[in-house]
Amino acid sequence: MIIKLLEVLRIAGACLGVFLAYYFGTTPEEVLRIMTPWLIGSIAGFSAVDGLFFANAAAAEKGYESGSNYQRQNAFWFLAVAVTSLISFFAGWNAYANIALVFVFCLFLILSAANHAYSLIVDGNTKWQNVIRPVLTTLFTLAFVYPVSAILLKKGHL
To answer: Could you please report the per-residue DSSP string of 5-61?
Structure first.
């Protein structure tokens, strides 16, 4: 039950962040600055919580093995990137710091989604996370396209 709640909080926090960013952000830099801690903080932060405190239940929910040092290490990575997204926001780091953070996180999400799709197709693991993760990854990654591309195009970096 707690794992399902954390999954809902991950998705809701990320969606709220996208909404707030596009509602209140008047420039690409503001959209990116608002969205980065909400989306990354929600997904990575709640993933860190479930990986560190509810590892066995989280693994079972996804149809994966549990108790691995890699599972704990992955949770620490989530914690590190969530904290970094919050530091970036509160310290007022520039758009390029946020873009770097977004690139790293979205690349991880894309690779993770590929792993979930592989588990679904090759292993026949039809758990909900394996079905929905590639879809959510696509949507959340697309949410960053406007602010990131607008900033890079404006500065002549694309």
So the answer is: HHHHHHHHHHHHHHHHHHHH--SHHHHHHHHHHHHHHHHHHHHHHHHHHSHHHHHHH
